Amino acid sequence: MTRLGVFGIILGCVLFLAAISSGCGGSSAANTNAAAETVTIDISTAQAAVMPIPAYIEATGNLASDAQTDVAPAIAGKVVEVNFDIGSYVNQGDVLIRLDARDAAIRLEQARAQVEQQRRTADQASANAEQALATLRQTQARLGVGDGEVFQIKDFSQVKSISAQLDLAEKELKRSAKLLESGDIARSIYDQRKSQRDSLLGQLDEARSNAAVAIKAIDTARAAYEAAKAAAASARAGIATLQATVASAEKAVGDNTVRAPISGYISDRTADVGEYISPSAPNTKIATIVRTSTLRMKIDIPEQSIGKVATGQGISLQTSSYPDRNFAGRVVRISPGLNVQARTLTVEAEIQNVDGLLKPGQFATVRITQSKPENAVMIPVAAVRTEGEANRVFIIKDGMAREQFVQLGLLENDMIQVKQGVAEGDVVATSNLNKLTDGVFVRAS
Description:
Shape: rod-shaped
Radius of gyration: 55 Å
Number of domains: 3
CATH architecture of the largest domain: Beta Barrel
């Protein structure tokens, strides 16, 4: 092959490669233009505005339950039933565990049987007392004696009658004796009247004896009644004593059932079926219940701000778990003195946790609202993109999105305060934030 032929071949290759290079360059430029068109993102926007918002004192702290209790049995026994586990919600009065109550149930039945027996004894004693009272009333009626009256022998009707006859006979006998001395009557008449007087004396002694027997009968009936009444009272007192024994036995049966003293969530469980537990052993708790429907938070107020806090004042609380949500509460307690070292006043707030979203131990930011509002830069919540602890927005300038990290403040409905990073009048993107990056072109709709 000649040199001219070799040169021609080389020239042809060079021209071919140049043509290929030219074609590739045109395709790359077209792709670049196409890419430039796809990075323009449609968005909606809003303008940062200065608005009056409530002024507040801000503090941080940890949430705590308003009540927590360790549950332990009152008596020893073997666990036969467990009705809870960690995380379970229990209502006050719910049965947590049951112990073997068979022995206590037997003692209870025995005590109840003793009460029934004693009640029958008391009923019989009461019947005896009523019968004794009826006998006493009959005995008193025969002598015409009422309750509380003291009956004397001289008041006995027969004694009264014979005594009257005896008085008359004595007088007649005295007159007869005078007449006998004067010879005005016969001796036989005098002897007759004396015999009559002596007969009445005998009758009086007999009447007095009868009266003494009647009085003794009343005393005997009264004593019988008092004894029967005392027996009935003693029997009724025995019922009361045995009823106390029944109550004690019922409590022993009830103590075999351990109930929740408060409503809340179970945070610890140490009881299992078949385990023998005793209140005399150390660490006898079977569970820990934490009430979370209301949470507490202690807030340290700087000395210069203590005049701005009062009981009943409203608060707003936020946590990192729910950055776009506020939880309401109020100040319920204020310490009477300052912390000397920190020069702060400790106040305690209560937060209603009806939905159970907040948990004891969570770190929270709390704001105590003041009566006088203050101006703040506000943007829609939709303009904020949160990733971990970082909050950012995209400020729109000259058709381009510029990423800006921001420090947020108070949340008011669908607007949120920006303490740092956005100025009044700045335009921020409020949609398609997940598609935006720093420097990307945007088109506001």
